[in-house]
């Protein structure tokens, strides 16, 4: 099998489909002087990670300001880094499957494992795939979640939500949506096609995934970004959504919307987010302190309950504190102590890690996703 990883800035731009001129550099964060660097931490992250519910206590503790450039999707992240001058970012929040590409392109620093509380992590997360090169650490897992079938529970009875085959139900024509990112959507269809390892598929299996997804196209009512996914589920435009999970429906539930996520019989995918310290970071020590802050039990509870989108957390002491301070949220997310919880889903093999394609190039998956959207 071939694991095709491009190593250069130029190949990052080609592979992810982001052309050099596609995002004006003026939209990026300005470069900082030395004095400013001592007073601020700049993060490249998914939306929500630099909001007050997450960073206010850190800012007060260290007398600094946290600023962020937000992105949606790992491909967008790679494009933004490729177009940014060195030193633009201190911390990079990466989807776990992209860490090896960041390392290969020399965009991130090697970390000291002793700086981080891995002894408090569940064993499954102490040596997380792709974050290490032998004994060398390059990224620290901070949160994760599961992707399954998101649906409106007033419009679709949960008894029908047992398989990804739901998306082809004739009653849902025009009411099925996609979160507009190829990795989660193609991974779910690959699971539906019976591929135990959904991202490591041969040419015949890949052709089968493409054929199956193309057959879904008449059902699709739209392709949605982060905000559009929220609104289309909330207002009933979309009844069932492919490619997302509780990170979306959990927020809507807080607002009283009748939506939820179910892991179907074919299994689900795990998204995972990790922090890397950027090469040429202006505030590397502050970046290390922030990772320590967010991986502490208190930081993990903040991350689990993040207003922008909730998540599961890898720190067992974080679980204990969440059960103590917010047992309702611990129950809602399945982070229960002494009884069945989300770790059982992982240990029973119901959840597969989301990955980059192994036997095809990322460009090939991107190209097919564009073809599918335009069909």
Question: How do you describe this structure in short?
Answer:
With 375 residues, this protein is of the alpha/beta class. It has 16 helices and twelve strands.
Description:
- The protein has 375 residues and is of the alpha/beta class.
- It folds into 2 domains: 9-143 and 272-334, 3-Layer(aba) Sandwich (D-Maltodextrin-Binding Protein, domain 2); 145-269 and 354-374, Periplasmic binding protein-like II (D-Maltodextrin-Binding Protein, domain 2).
- The chain contains 16 helices and 12 strands.
- The strands form 2 sheets. Strands 1, 2, 3, 6, 7, 8, 9, 10, 11 and 12 form a 10-stranded mixed β-sheet that branches. Strands 4-5 form a two-stranded antiparallel ribbon.
- Helix 11 (284-295) crosses helix 12 and helix 13 packs across helix 14.
- The longest helix is centred in the middle third of the chain and has 14 residues, at 203-216.
- The radius of gyration is 20 Å and the shape is globular.
Q: Estimate nothing, just give the exact number of structural domains.
A: 2
Structural class: alpha/beta
CATH architecture tag of the largest domain:
3-Layer(aba) Sandwich
Order of helices and strands: HHEHEHEHHEEEEHHEHEHEEHHHHHEH
CATH superfamily of the largest domain: Periplasmic binding protein-like II
Could you tell me the number of beta strands? 12
Task: Kindly estimate the percentage of residues that lie in beta strands according to DSSP.
Answer: 15-25%
- Main sheet makeup: 10 strands, mixed
**Number of helical regions:** 16
**Averaged pLDDT, please?**
91
This entry's quaternary arrangement is single chain
What is the level 1 CATH name of the largest domain? Alpha Beta
Q: End-to-end distance, in Å? A: 30 Å
Main location: periplasm
Protein name: Spermidine/putrescine transport system substrate-binding protein
Keywords: Periplasm, Signal, Transport
Subcellular location: Periplasm
């Amino acid at each position: 099998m071939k694991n095709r990883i491009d190593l250069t800035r130029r190949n990052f731009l080609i592979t992810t489909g982001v052309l050099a001129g596609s995002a004006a550099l003026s939209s990026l964060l300005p470069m900082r002087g030395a004095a400013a660097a001592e007073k601020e931490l700049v993060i490249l992250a998914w939306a929500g990670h630099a909001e007050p519910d997450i960073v206010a206590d850190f800012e007060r503790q260290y007398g600094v300001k946290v600023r962020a450039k937000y992105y949606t999707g790992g491909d967008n992240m790679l494009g933004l880094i490729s177009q940014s001058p060195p030193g633009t970012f201190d911390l990079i929040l990466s989807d776990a499957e992209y860490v090896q590409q960041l390392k290969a392109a020399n965009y991130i620093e090697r970390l000291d494992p002793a700086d981080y509380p891995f002894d408090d992590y569940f064993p499954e997360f102490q040596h997380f795939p792709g974050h290490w090169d032998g004994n060398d650490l390059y990224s620290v897992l901070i949160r994760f979640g599961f992707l399954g079938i998101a649906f409106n529970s007033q419009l679709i009875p949960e008894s029908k939500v047992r398989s990804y085959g739901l998306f082809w139900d004739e009653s849902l024509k025009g009411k099925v949506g996609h979160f507009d990112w190829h990795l989660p959507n193609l991974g779910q269809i690959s699971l539906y096609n019976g591929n135990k390892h959904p991202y490591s598929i041969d040419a015949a299996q890949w052709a089968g995934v493409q054929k199956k997804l193309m057959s879904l196209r008449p059902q699709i009512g739209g392709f949605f970004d982060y905000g559009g996914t929220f609104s289309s589920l909330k207002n009933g435009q979309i009844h069932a959504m492919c490619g997302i999970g509780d990170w979306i429906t959990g927020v809507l539930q807080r607002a009283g919307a009748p939506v939820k996520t179910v892991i179907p019989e074919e299994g689900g995918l795990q998204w995972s987010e990790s922090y890397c310290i950027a090469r040429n970071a202006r505030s590397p020590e502050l970046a290390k302190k922030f990772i320590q802050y967010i991986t502490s039990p208190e930081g993990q509870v903040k991350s689990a309950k993040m207003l922008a989108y909730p998540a599961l957390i890898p720190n067992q002491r974080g679980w204990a504190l969440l059960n103590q301070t917010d047992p309702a949220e611990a129950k809602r997310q399945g982070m229960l102590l002494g009884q069945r919880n989300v770790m059982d889903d992982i240990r029973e093999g119901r959840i597969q890690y989301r990955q980059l394609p192994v036997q095809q190039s990322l460009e090939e998956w991107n190209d097919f996703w564009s073809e599918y959207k335009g069909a």
